[in-house]
Amino acid sequence: MSSEAIREQSFTRRALVLGGGMGLVGAMLTARMTWLSIFEGEQYRLASEENRVQLRLIPPRRGWIVDRNGKPLALNKPDYRLELIPEQITDLDRVLAQVGKILGLSFADELRIRADIAIQPSYMPVEVARNLDWPAFAALNVQVADVPGLQPVRAFSRVYPDADQFAHLLGYVGAPTPAQYKDQKDPLLIFPGFRIGKDGIERHEDRVLRGRAGAQRVEVTARGKVVRELDTRGDVPGATLRLTIDRDLQNFTARRLGNNSASVIVIDCLTGDVLTMVSMPAYDPNIFSSRVPAALWKDLQENDHNPLLNKSAMGLYPPGSTFKMVTALAALEAGITPDQGVRCTGRYKLGNNTWHCHSRRGHGFVDMHGALPKSCDVYFYEYGRRVGIDAIAAMARRLGLGEKYPLPLPGQAGGIVPDQAWKQKRYKKSWNIGETLNSSIGQGYLALNPLQLAVMTARVASGLAVVPRLLAPADGAAAPQFESLGIPEEHLALVRQGMYDVVNAGIGTARGARSPIAGVHFAGKTGTAQVRRISAEERRRGVKKNESLPWKQRDHALFVAFAPTEQPRYAVSVIIEHGIAGGRYAAPIARDVLTFMYDPERALKVLGPIEAQLAAERAAAEREEQAEASAAVQAEMMPSWLRTDDIVPPIYEIGPAGEPQLPRDEF
Amino acid sequence: MLNGPWLRELSRLPWGIVLVVTAITGFGLVVLYSAAGGSLTPWALKQGIRFAILMSVALGIAMVRPDVWLRLAWPIYGTVLVGLVGVELLGRIGGGSQRWLDLGFIQLQPSEFMKIAVVLVLARYYHFLPKGFETKWNALLPALALIALPAALVMLQPDLGTALSITFGGVVVMFLAGVRIWLFASAGLAAVAAMPLVWSMLHEYQRKRVLIFLDPATDPRGAGYHITQSKIAIGSGGLSGKGFLNGTQSHLDYLPELQTDFAFATMAEEWGLIGGIFIIVMFGVVLGWGMSVALKARGQFQRLLALGLTATLFFYLAINMMMVMGLAPVVGIPLPLISYGGSAMMTVLILIGLIMGIARENTLPRN
Which of A150, A303, B40, B216 is at 20 to 30 A from B31, Cα to Cα? Predict the structure, then answer.
């Protein structure tokens, strides 16, 4: 065999080995491809569908909120925005420069955007610009279409036509917090421009107002460009929410309050409809629904009139003399007859201490008929002491005090209706009689919210266990049937007569609240609640006139009323924080509000001088402010998910609940 | 002229294989037509013209007798090597990754030619090496140097895929020439041992590719994206595919490099497993033909050349398909005749032309 033949043989052997190797690889490739396309084909088909088809949310339009007559309180207007999703952005500087060229971002805007990106989770959209006009928005759609992470958004922004006047009741809307998204896992919550209810009814009824998102299936390229639409499921807009509120009345009431720090509630005694629930001063929910400038936020927080607090539901106040109806009813229930009475000398001795009546000289002989109109403290000390705190507390609860009502509000203060068991539990001490005296005239531990006082008045006026409601029932629904309170009609009649006399009799403490409407009479009760601790030194020197004290130390002014006396329909409670005197300052407001129910034209006339004075005051304050206004940075914004949860009502430091009452001027 | 020896000479060419190659390329044109969204531009038409020209060149090469290549082996190898060095020098001056040699009228990629030249020169080297000397050190070292020199130069460019291809072609020729098996075994072991060294020499992006190949899920949006999307394209095609022009991965831009490195995936999405098997079988026919040519060839040079070139073609196919199916890292080797691009097509058609020349030689009567 030649060497050539050996070489050929060896070559053939090795060539076959190589060929075998190639064949193996070929078989392996075929097997692999079969595996991918046949055995794992389904999985990859899904993956390719997932690539190709994108589900786009169509956010639902938020439901309107309207008043009892269908007048809008909260509605939507179209709003074109540009938003940015940080996690999709690769080069922020470049993107911002690009946007700046189109929109002209200010330095402050850029700072805000960067700050937002820094504090928010990267999947939460950040607003770049809002309220763009249509041409700008259309141009933007073209210019930023291929910039990943930038999204022109056509959204609806919430509008509150009456701004401040419904702020606390309705609340406002805002961007969901990262925590809310984690909690609900609803992709709608990170949809650019989507807003949810943040406070008030907007928050409590958010699910109803929100509606259901629609979805659109679109075919998209890898760069997110839509090639075509596949199918669409429409969105379901949120339901329209009808409230029991009367928009005109609420507006009138808010304007009537001027710049008082106050709360007014009007309840329909027959149906429980809350016609008005005003808490002033307030904030502008339109601003809160976009972004709140930090300077404004700071002002609101530092304002001693507490504009962020819904005083109607969350404020707690000592009821003062407005509580005397409770003491009176408790006394009657305990068998005290209307003709029994006390001789009021202006003083009431208990042990070594002396309690004072607001009348220094005393009221002389006072029985049940005169006790409420004169608001004689000594009468209530005496009979409150006789029936005891537990009977008074039981009556208070029957009248709805210390209770939280089923209302669509995110928070309601329960308040305190003290009794022996409560004190034992709270302070581990037994009740003392001095505390009963103070409770009898609505001081001491008692703390109630304005809503409860309105409900109490409605219950006294109707004799029924009225429960307030804010959501209007569906058309044609039967009026609610409230149970009777079980208080004998003659007891109620006595108390109602007393309240009638407060306003209409010559001895009454609220003669200024007399009805201007022929044939309609108002009945009410004044209250002036002490809010401060009086020092021993002050005790010796005698207490100063309220007007000469700083605002924070003045007494609260309260007034509760109902009308018409002949057939009670409306119940009102008015609380003016540090308003000095219920009869002089709170009662006229209740009068005007009730007047508006019967004769709006006449009521509106009183607004003229009030608003003229307000305008003058505001102009003066503005001049002052302008003088000291520096070019300080005002542009800083609060985070988009601003929260007001942690705002708490002020706590008034009142003296020990068992301390004797001092002589006072007001009642 | 017409009834002279020309017709007889042309009839000796393996027309069957020309048909197979044309069929593969035709199918490739269909894929490119779809990849462009149902359009001849920018790819299919250009590729078709390119194929027509290069096929003519290949047929021309086939008319050259293998003895000519035997004589020209060293000069060709030397020229290509000088070209590689030239590229390297120009690259050093120009900065960055340089693979092209601009001769003014044409841009040449010497590394592509080297895939053929290295097989050519080694075939000649072993042709004249007496039987029994293949495994001797003084015979082994020159052969290794002939492979290592161009491979190292290409690595410097850096172009891992081509360097591997050159090495593979050369090593296959050494194997076929009869170098002892245990040497390959120990070389394999040494390669495994040298892995850390190679690793340290790799570029950052190359390392990343290897790491991502080992676990594509680590970077589904970045470089692992290529492999993942390619697997989705192939897998979603199923048995018979989504249909011509109906690929979504390719048409909606999810598949990167859909007309070049990932053309197989583009094809598989629309034609499914059937299309894939068609391509594998057709190339199998070409490779089998190459092997039969080599087995019948006269003389060690022709044998080594024919099978060495067949192996080079195989390397292209295997690496590309393994890559698109997620069995190998992304190394940037196109699928011959299907992927859009001139260099690879030129190399493959020259290579086929050379084998056809040997096949023609086989049909000549022995003298």
Answer: B216
Chain B residues touching A3 at Cβ < 8 A: 130-131
Q: In 3D, which of B165, B210, B228, B247 has the Cα closest to residue B329?
A: B210
Q: CA dist B99 to A12, A556, B94, B153, Å?
A: 37, 90, 11, 11
Average pLDDT over residues A176-201: 83
Cα-only R_g, chain B: 21
* Mean pLDDT on B168-192: 90
At residue A545, does pLDDT exceed 70? Answer: no
Gap between the Cα atoms of B365 and B362, Å rounded: 8
- Measured between beta carbons, which residues in chain B are less than 8 angstroms from residue A37? 234-235, 237-239, 268, 272-273, 276
Instruction: Look at residue A280 and tell me if it is in a domain.
Output: yes
Q: Quick: pLDDT tens for B269-282.
A: 999 999 999 999 99
Q: Specify the 3-state DSSP secondary structure of A70.
A: coil
What pLDDT was estimated at residue A651?
Answer: 64
H/E/C letters for each residue in B106-126? CEECHHHHHHHHHHHHHHHHH
**In a domain? residue A660:** no
pLDDT in tens, A427-441: 888 888 888 888 888
Residue A533 binned pLDDT confidence (cut-offs 50, 70, 90): low
Let me know whether A230 and A262 are in one domain.
Answer: no
- Say if the Cβ atoms of B295 and A26 lie within 8 Å: no
Of B229, B245, B227, B242, which Cα lies nearest the Cα of B32? B245
Highest mean pLDDT among A146-150, A640-644, B255-259: B255-259
Q: A556 φ, ψ to 5°?
A: -75, 145
How many distinct structural domains can be found in chain A?
Answer: 2
Average pLDDT over residues A80-97: 81
- Residue B1 is predicted with a pLDDT of 47
Residue A661 in any domain: the answer is no
Residue B10 structure tokens? 């042309």
pLDDT of amino acid A305: 83
Of the candidates A89, A221, A86, the residue with the CA atom closest to the CA atom of residue A147? A89
Task: Suggest the residue from A48, A90, A146, A230 to mutate for an interface test with chain B (most B CBs closer than 10 A).
Answer: A48
The pLDDT of residue A631 = 46
The amino acid occupying position A152 is: P
Domain ranges of chain B: 65-202, 203-367
CB A37 within 8 A of CB B238: yes
pLDDT tens per residue across span A300-319: 888 888 888 888 888 888 88
Task: Answer yes or no: do A37 and B234 touch at CB < 8 A.
Answer: yes
Q: Is A406 left (phi over 0), alpha (psi -120 to 50) or beta?
A: beta
- What's the maximum distance between 2 C-alpha atoms anywhere in chain A? 152
Residue B319: C-alpha distances to residues A206, B185, B230, B264 (Å): 59, 21, 14, 12
Average pLDDT rounded to a whole number, residues A32-55: 90
Asked if A662 and A539 count as a contact pair (C-beta separation under 8 A), the reply is: yes
Taking the alpha carbons at both ends of chain A, their separation in whole angstroms is 137
Q: Where in the sequence is the domain holding A557, given as residue range(s)?
A: 247-474+481-622
Q: Given a cut of 80, is residue A516 above it in pLDDT?
A: yes
Q: Which of residues 17-76 of B touch A (CB under 8 A)?
A: none
Residues A252, A236 within the same domain: no
Whether ipTM > 0.90 holds is yes
| CATH assignment of the domain containing A329 | 3.40.710.10
- Domain end among A222, A242, A262: A242
Contact call for B236 and A220, based on CB within 8 A: no
